[in-house]
Amino acid sequence: xxxxVLIATRTFGKYSDDPIExxxxxxxxxxxxxxxxxxxxxxxxxxxxGTHHVTAEMIxxxxxxxxxxxxxxxxxxxxxxxxxxxxxxxxxAGANSLSVAELTIAFVFALSRGLIWSHNxxxxxxxxxxxxxxxxxxxxxxxxxxxxxxxxVVRRSICLGMNVLVYDPYVSKDTIRVFGATxxxxxxxxxxxxxxxxxxxxxxxxxRNIIGEREISLMKKTAFLINxxxxxxxxxxxxxxxxxxxxxxxxxxxxFSEEPPSPDSPLFECPNLITTAHIGAHTKEAIYRMNxxxxxxxxxxxNGKIPKYVVNEEVVNLLKHKGYQETS
Length: 328
Prior knowledge:
Strand content: 15-25%
Number of domains: 2
Number of strands: 14
Distance between the termini: 27 Å
Number of helices: 12
Largest sheet: 7 strands, parallel
CATH superfamily of the largest domain: NAD(P)-binding Rossmann-like Domain
CATH class of the largest domain: Alpha Beta
Structural class: alpha/beta
Radius of gyration: 21 Å
CATH topology of the largest domain: Rossmann fold
């Protein structure tokens, strides 16, 4: 009997047939959708999901046995509801770390050299005007969050000759020092000293609006703010005010509190802002890795194995009790 897996992410199998063929070979019937609602989960055994919201009602009324997130942030999945039903929720940890880190560094160069603004003046306005930028060598880069992506950002920024500060109260200072960065005890100190500040933490109640008006006011007027993690980490009204009033030199956002943002959002009136459409993980390499990792999690589960990177630990213990084996 076929097991049914619902694919609710557009990039699954887009650039390679490997993940689709892998699931089919393992006996799965594949169902694909572009839009996602409650009825789509009827008769589905597994869900591979990107950014669609998976609500408590959807989970409770479904017969899902596993949810595989095509990415790492699970703020779009009701984790408590999944845990109550004993449904493991997996992530593709590390799959997009390189891609997001490289976009972050690209933002550093774009901001420091005014690349977007220079392009627009010449290409769109046909104005031959030089833009005076700054070198990144010797500048201080403040990295908030030292997970997989934060570490890749640190590696690259150190190679550029930057002085790197890291704030992450959940990581030991010795671990941070091994990477050549300097740990700081207080977020305020990082904000005051950094020429660039980049966010690399998950979105939850403790990190929501971690950067607000007070935090921005601590930054240098010449500093730049970068967010390639989750939009809710920054108070956008505070950022708009800061950009308009010159409290900081500029910002780069790949993520927004509301996605897509409204076309008439005041953010788009800030000339010192660079924006992209949540493309951090959108490289062919990262998408392939996420595809295969999500598919592998589903296959492992139905083969009686505990998938890698289950985020709801309570369910891991439940699976062990049921006889599921650890993956090697």
